[in-house]
Amino acid sequence: MIDFYLAAEGAPEHNPIVPVWQEIVVGTVAFAVLCFVLMKFVFPMMEKTFAARVDAIEGGIKRAEAAQAEANELLEQYRTQLAEARTEAARIRDEARADAEGIRQDVLAKAREESDRIIAAGNEQLAAQRESIVRELRSEVGTLAVDLASKIVGEALADEARTRGTVERFIADLDTAGRR
Amino acid sequence: MIGQSTVLAAAFPPSVEDFYLPSILPWGAHDSYWFTKITVLVWVAVAAIIIFFLVSYRKPQLVPTKKQWIAESLYGFVRNNIAVDMIGPQGVRFAPYLTSLFLFILVNNFFGIVPLIQISPMSHIAFPAVLAVISYVMFIWVGIKKHGIAYFKHAVMPNAPAGILPLLIPIEIFSNFLVRPFSLAVRLFANMFAGHMLLLVFTLGGFAMINANVLLAPISVLSWVLTIAITFLEFMVICLQAYVFTVLTASYVQGSLADEH
Questions:
Q1: Residue A2: what pLDDT?
Q2: Which residue in A8, A71, A179, B8 has the most C-beta neighbors within 10 A?
């Protein structure tokens, strides 16, 4: 029956597992063209895109890590600076305290010295005044005593020199009696 | 309709000649093969793939558009699930060829179930044969490049006791260097051939029955429904065969690259 139709169509008989050489040529060329275009223009671009994508993701992660590291470093730096500033402040405070103490001591010492000096000066003055008063008194007492005695005796003592000697002796007696 | 069905029914049962349609240029010639439906389909497939990839990958972006994503997925599928899975990290350099191969087979196979086209160029053994020869040359070439001439020694000499080698070596030569290209080509060809034949049998069978006896009309309808069902089955076969051809090529390349086993 097949033979009948083949004969009717006048076609050459085909064997399905014997390739037609024209089709081999067409297949080879077509496939070569396809491979050439895809392998030269398309797939390398895709690989590039894939790589770029991976790079973008990994790069992003890397950048984030770098930023994190930098932030950490800055934080550390700030902490160090802060600690330094604190130490510095404490040191300045201590120094100020020490200075203040020193100044107080100085002032106190000066004041004490001043007061000592004033007291000493006062004492000296007192002593000097006392001395002059005593001297004045001594002469005056002598005169007064002589005047009194002459008044009492009723007559002026003729020999002033003798009188003076008497008075002097009398006062020296008084002095020794007073010391005793 | 009646005229058409008569014509179609006249060709029942379908024969090998149904795969060799008259040529387009010159119109109707039976012994010219340069410009036939089959060769036109091959060119259409190549053009379609190239245009799709060039258009969708004209301006690649880090965040892909939908088209770019589809193109990348096709490449990524073969690259990661076939090339890298089978061959390992160095499989990446074979990924472009394997993807081209996969797409070429897939689209050409797909013509087998496109309405009004419904014949795959891969049902002509010339095309699978070309692809199989390329795979064959490639895996041998890769093996020689990697191991030098010693490649042949370790390709045919399995790691077995010396006593059994006289038996194993001929088997290895036979299976690795003689059968491989044929099995690759014939597997793909036979699947597409049988798929087309099945569709023909069920479609033409329906016409043959309705022509023979109007009472058989319900069975004709059943036959045509089955045609649709078989079309879905064919879809599975189409994808599977494209995948199998690519995986086997990758596996042969992997065998050539493998170190002494």
A1: 42
A2: B8
